[in-house]
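Q: I have two molecules that I believe assemble together. Could you output structure tokens for the complex as a whole instead of separate predictions?
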Amino acid sequence: MRLRSLVTLGRMIAAPSSARALSVSQPLRTVYDPKAFEEPITDKKLLIQPLEESDPRNFLLIKAMQSDDTPVFYRDRVVDKFVNLCLQRGYKEIARTMVYEALETIKRHQYKAWRKAPTAAEKSAIELNPFVVFSQSIKNCQPMMKLIKLTRGGIVYQVPAPVAPSQAEFMAMKSLRDICREKAHKGRTSFETALAGEILSAYKNEGATIQAKQEFHKQCEANRAFAHYRTMAS
Amino acid sequence: MLQRNSFSNHLLAAGRLLFSGSGRTTLATVPSTPSSDDHETVVPVGSGEGPRQRGEQISRAMKVYLAQAQAKDLMMQKERATFDLGKRHLANIMGVDVADMTQRDINRAIQYLFPSGLFDIGARPVMKPPEQLFASMTAVKFDESGRPIDSLFYTLRPNFYRLLTDIARKTDALMDHADQVRRKQGSAPKDSQIISVGSTWVSMESFSQILGEKITEEMYAQLVAALENLMTIPFAHMERDFIFKYRKMLGGGKSDGKQKGSFLPVVEIDATTGRRFATAFGGKKKTRAFVTIHDAGTGKYTVNGHGIDTVRSLQAREMLLAPFITLNKLGQFDVEARTEGPGGLSSIPAAIRLGVSFCLSAFVSDVERNQLRLAGLLTRDPRRRERSKVNQPGARQKWTWKRR
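A: Yes, here they are, computed for all two components at once.
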């Protein structure tokens, strides 16, 4: 009886299943389905403004907020970008601490200068916000041109070309970082000290980074004869 | 599936017989052109006999259909009886009353008694009522002369063609309406569009299920094209309900901030302190967080019994406070979080952040809840570590190509 019941059961269990076609599609590039997910709004000013009625974010899912994108009051796009550029082997906390310590040094330096300034006019000329100082320094370090490598007949030409603002910003940051790393090499000084000094100099259009930018401009100038290769190079 | 195939073949056979039976042709002359999916032979109705009258031919075709229907009925009765018996045995084995046994209990019992490690879900053992396993045979009505009343019977996919016809009629009607408006106004009609973003057409399988007929990819494309057209013409919103029967929402949020996957906890009142509190669960990767927040607080924040000041990482602190920072509610709630599972300086705060956001969403207005949603705080981060691939150093990274 028992055996029979199990046989009956087994027969019921052997249900027909529809054949599944072999998947030939590409593997998913992201778990966030691009048709179903939109980027989050992490700017608090934008967040309080009502969306348009036909805005897709009214109907689609929103991606989770990034861990380094919390809308704190000191969130600064340029500083965040620089932190990511200084990042080594994923140690974000270290990179962030170094950059913020440099900003603190700048604040102290500027405040000291502000205290010492005798007149109100001189006082108001001193920028006390280190974030503003930093972004202005980066702006000062941005090159106006870039050089593209082009190989023709076995000779590598450096072709000067106009640079997009985002790339110029990146080049400035990279140059600043490399110079600071070089200064802090083998414990000669700390990265944050070097960075603070460099930023303060760059703010006044002085220092190694500005010098590097000017040398780069000279290089562009020297290669201006190849500028007509630009259409082939890009 | 076998039943559905043979049934459609017979329909096919019947259709063919009936089509060629027009006029004074005899059944004997019907060319037997088996289609590619024919598994059964065409019923030799009246083959090798003398000329027959039309009425008789039709009734024979109908007979085939009726015989099929009867056979199917019998089969279903048998299967139903076997299912009931199996269910009783299962109840005996599992020590449950048969009357209380739901399909969920059956599934659980099958999973317990026949554990399967097969990857394909369709290959695992199942026990379901026969109505769900075998395609139902749609009842076809015939008139006195033996002809099917529904003229679309001969198309073999009556529901599909009926839907296409409906769409075409609705399209025509809307275009006529737009013409009338244009004639009245003397200008092109202005009309609010249907918002299509946030929803897609249901899949081919779902269409098959809705129609009760198997449809091919071409037929699916036809349907979608017709519906797309209907959706884009002026005054389409008049047929919104009809169109949205065949669209599925992508699960996005609404203005009140309730989106698919988000959880809105119930606000309770603490009997001793009289303060309102809510409890929620949050997660990230394999980290789990159980969060309770009390309102009318001072901003006290404990994670596994430790205060937020013991968290050195500033980024982790930011993440823990993110929901309150976003809604400018710092220092108004007390948070108590407990975490389980692995996790570090990113995972644990992310899991707690989700739990806190869910809790906070229960205390705030619809607008604020929508702000939490738009900031991405009500979404569980679904990203996981991608496995590395064979013959590659990483998940996507490839070895450098070297000639030799």
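A: One point stands out. Residues 69 and 137 of chain B are 7 Å apart (CA to CA).
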